[in-house]
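Section 4.2 – Deliverable D4.2 (structural model, holo form)

The reporting period included a commitment to supply a predicted holo structure for the target in complex with flavin-adenine dinucleotide. Inputs used:
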Amino acid sequence: MPKALVIGAGSAGPAVAQLLTRHGWDAPVFEARAALDSAAGLFLNVAVNGRRVLDRLGVTTRLLTDAHPAGLMQMYSSRGRLLATVPNGTAGEPDAGGVVVRRGWLQQVLWDAAADAGVRIHTGRRLAQLDVEAEGVRARFADGHVEHGDIVIGADGVGSAVRRWIAPEAAADFTGLVGAGGFARVPDLAPTPGIQRFVFGRRSFFGYLVREDGTVYWFANATASAPPARSSSSIDILAQLRELHGGDPDPVPAILANTTTDIGAYPIFRLPTVPRWWRGRAVAVGDAVHATSPSAGQGASLALEDAAELAAQLVRADGHEAAFAAFEASRRSRAERVVAYAAALDRQKKVKGGRVGTAFRDAMLPLFLRNATTDTRYDWVFDHRPPEI
Ligand SMILES: Cc1cc2nc3c(=O)[nH]c(=O)nc-3n(C[C@H](O)[C@H](O)[C@H](O)COP(=O)(O)OP(=O)(O)OC[C@H]3O[C@@H](n4cnc5c(N)ncnc54)[C@H](O)[C@@H]3O)c2cc1C
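Output (structure tokens):
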């Protein structure tokens, strides 16, 4: 039985492990975190292209038991004017659009489905050293455990240790945006079924949705010249955000005022291009080779697409090198195009030049967004279909 060591149990890791296991591989997953915490993290968009992979994994019905369908995105100016309603999916198909889910819940669902298929997920195992030889791979973990396999799949995210072995020269760029977010309950704030809202605030970009039960999911993207110090406390970050968004339209200040959960600030990085996605018996997938800013809502979906494509190639191809080469050939241009698209969206979010810059941006946004509702130019982002596997 061929054996793949899968490093990382975010989105791509459990997905590729499940698909390979179904096809007769041994594909144990090694995750650095001590345990799965389904309440940890914020939330993310799973776009329709990612949802097609979830269908293949058999997890859609369960995931949707705790999801906010968001086929439409409403964009507001810093004065509270509705600028445009934009499809979160193929134009004109809001019912077949993306869904917003807590990141921890997506992981719980993917882990459980992988375990049901027979995958062993080992937590508390951080890859520390990789030895890739002609006959096989040896992974050494920080706790001293050693594991042997035929190939290694790096699904270990933007700071990937496997990518460092494959392409040590590749480094992630700071996007100039710092993300933060949390959950709140705001008295009398109505649910936003089918919709996520975005506000081009005076000094920072803000997004939110209101679940049927009244829970508000929100995030902010502030412009920064350098990544923030890691030491800021949740209270300090919230105080800064309340200040930054103080002059923005309702309900933004109210959401921040009513946030009582812990929040964190994290610098947003991207990997526009990585020169090699595989080397010898090692290959990397997802954020490890094409991390994108969250602006296009595509990070998890691209990682899931990669998982389906790599598994299909490994099952079909004659040997791992042919499979890795075919995987990279089929995925690279699409992934890099999405990362570039998200970078273009990042530029619209950034606040430059004080009041004059904000006034200029507010004047230009309606022009950019004028045909957004029916614009089919971005359908390519969502049209991808995973291979049969
Ligand atoms: C705040 C925020 C909002 C986001 N919003 C969106 C969104 O709206 N839409 C969207 O599609 N995406 C979004 N993303 C991005 C999305 O979460 C990722 O793009 C996606 O999960 C990528 O999947 P992955 O499997 O490649 O990597 P990850 O999900 O990052 O998983 C990597 C895993 O590897 C583990 N790991 C790392 N190093 C090691 C090691 N040495 N040994 C073992 N394990 C290791 C990590 O602990 C982690 O569990 C967002 C991200 C953030 C931070």
